[in-house]
Write a structure and sequence with these properties.
Strand content: under 5%
Distance between the termini: 66 Å
Shape: globular
Strand order of the largest sheet: 2-1-3
CATH topology: Rhopdopsin 7-helix transmembrane proteins
Radius of gyration: 21 Å
Largest sheet: 3 strands, mixed
Helix content: over 70%
Number of strands: 3
């Protein structure tokens, strides 16, 4: 055996979602269908907000960036999964596995931070409407967006810096359709108890805290808007409900995956599939179905 900090394993074997060929074909067709909806839906949101002067408010600026993150996030794991399904190859190189882990946590953490920024934006808009224009300036909005990307990068780099020194000299089978820290750590040829605890704090507790804070914020806002006018109450409540749905969709699977011991559970693959493939589809659907301004602007832009 070579030195302990040297990676002997050069590739990992991905078991995928199922061993049955029929089920794999079904998931491949489902993935293609999701791509047909995810990419055009998010691109349409970005183009609509970019070309419609009435959608230049901070809320829609954040929404366009959220759609961009969803596009990037949906391009991390599904392409490799579809390639493996169609080619029959189930392997992934060590470097590609590390890259998957990096981009999953980079984009996932950035999106979580952006959702918190959107909660801050709604809080200022509803609780301090007279100061909204002076507080949520274009500079502040860009700072929050860039800060979200930076926070995602730092979070992901912490994961990678802790994983790269691990020695992999034995088993190389991952019981999943993509690489993630919860799977790859268990294959290391060393005691990873301390590392699992650090990962649990870095991913699990941080995600749970980030999940609770926006919910508290939106709960306060829902109580606040009850004192407003009927028209303003309805619009603000609808916006808050939409954001709460997005927060639940984004955070719940992450809390389930990372805020527990790194062990296999029956629904892990199902939750991971919805988290990495299905849920990025929900953001454009929810916003376009619940936001009249977006729907009107989309119809106008499509006609042009």
């Amino acid at each position: 055996m070579e030195q302990e900090n040297h990676t002997v394993v050069t590739e990992f074997i991905l078991k995928g979602l199922s061993q049955g060929w029929e089920i794999q074909v079904f998931f491949a067709a489902l993935l293609l269908l999701f791509y047909v909806i995810i990419l055009p839906g998010n691109i349409l949101i970005i183009m609509t907000i970019w070309n419609e002067p009435r959608l230049r408010s901070p809320m829609f600026f954040f929404l366009a960036n959220l759609a961009l993150m969803d596009i990037c996030y949906s391009c991390v794991t599904p392409p490799k999964m579809m390639a493996n399904l169609f080619s029959g190859c189930k392997t992934i190189f060590y470097q590609a596995c590390i890259a998957q882990i990096f981009f999953i946590h980079f984009l996932g953490a950035a999106e979580i931070c952006l959702l918190i920024a959107m909660a801050v934006d709604r809080y200022v808009a509803i609780c301090h409407p007279l100061r909204y224009a002076t507080v949520m300036t274009r500079l502040i909005c860009w700072t929050l967006v860039i800060g979200s990307w930076a926070e995602g990068f730092v979070h992901s780099m912490i994961q990678i810096i802790l994983i790269i020194p691990l020695p992999f000299c034995g088993p190389n089978v991952l019981d999943n359709f993509f690489c993630d820290v919860t799977q790859i750590i268990k294959l290391a040829c060393t005691n990873t108890y301390s590392l699992e605890f650090v990962m649990f704090v870095n991913s699990g507790l941080v995600t749970t805290t980030s999940f609770i804070l926006p919910l508290i914020s939106y709960g306060v806002l829902l109580v606040k808007v009850r004192k407003g006018s009927t028209e303003g109450k309805s619009k603000a409540s609808s916006t808050c409900v939409t954001h709460i749905i997005i927060v639940f969709i984004m955070f719940s699977p992450a809390v389930y995956i990372y805020c527990r011991p790194f062990q296999d559970f029956p629904f892990d693959k199902v939750v991971a599939f919805f988290h990495t493939v299905v849920f990025p589809l929900m953001n454009p659907l929810i916003y376009t179905l619940r936001n009249k301004e977006i729907k009107v602007a989309m119809r106008k832009w499509i006609k042009k």
